[in-house]
Specification:
This protein has 173 residues and is an all-alpha fold. The protein has one domain (21-163). 73% of the residues lie in helices and 0% in strands. Helix 3 (43-54) packs antiparallel against helix 4 and helix 6 (95-106) packs antiparallel against helix 7 (111-121). The longest helix is centred in the last third of the chain and has 41 residues, at 123-163. It is elongated.
Length: 173
């Protein structure tokens, strides 16, 4: 498929999502939250669990995880670690290990390989990545709820305006 056609296809699928705007926005926010976490092979699972637990849309939760994609994985992991290490007041003592993890991310190795390298690095590295990811996830996902709530309300209003004919007039007899 050509890019223009593929883009239109996904646009139409997006605007045809069914559901309450609050549920759709909540699902999207949970997806974005999970997508910002440096838990690459488990992001969709986390988003779906949150959507199930808090009655958000599971479809938009899965869609929201695509905020994390091959184009930005490197930056996501890099800033997760840097923000987490800073928040925890840790010195960068594990430069070689961090460099190895970032090389795996840059080379787009399998998510499980990256997760294993982080786990092997120990508790300090895990805490840094997760703390930084949590901070970024909160900062990005909370405003995303309100942005997508606005978008889904606009889509619903647009859909409803198309259902009612505009040329109907009440005439007096």
């Amino acid at each position: 498929m050509e890019l223009k056609r593929l883009t239109r296809y996904y646009y139409l699928r997006f605007i045809r999502l069914r559901g309450n705007p609050q549920e759709l926005a909540l699902g999207m926010s949970f997806g974005i939250f999970a997508g910002m976490m440096p838990i690459l092979p488990f992001q969709t699972a986390l988003a779906l669990v949150l959507a199930l637990a808090f009655k958000g849309s599971k479809i938009t939760a899965a869609l929201g995880t695509w905020i994390s994609n091959p184009l930005n994985w490197y930056f996501l992991y890099y800033y997760s670690y840097k923000i987490g290490a800073s928040a925890l007041g840790m010195q960068e003592q594990q430069g070689a290990i961090f460099s190895s993890i970032m090389t795996s991310v840059r080379l787009r190795e399998d998510g499980m390989v990256i997760a294993e390298k982080i786990m092997e690095a120990g508790g300090v590295m895990i805490a840094s990545f997760l703390t930084g990811g949590l901070i970024m996830a909160i900062v990005v996902s909370i405003p995303s709820y309100f942005i997508f709530l606005y978008i889904f309300r606009k889509i619903r209003a647009w859909r409803e305006s198309r259902r009612t004919p505009r040329n109907w007039r009440v005439t007096e007899h």
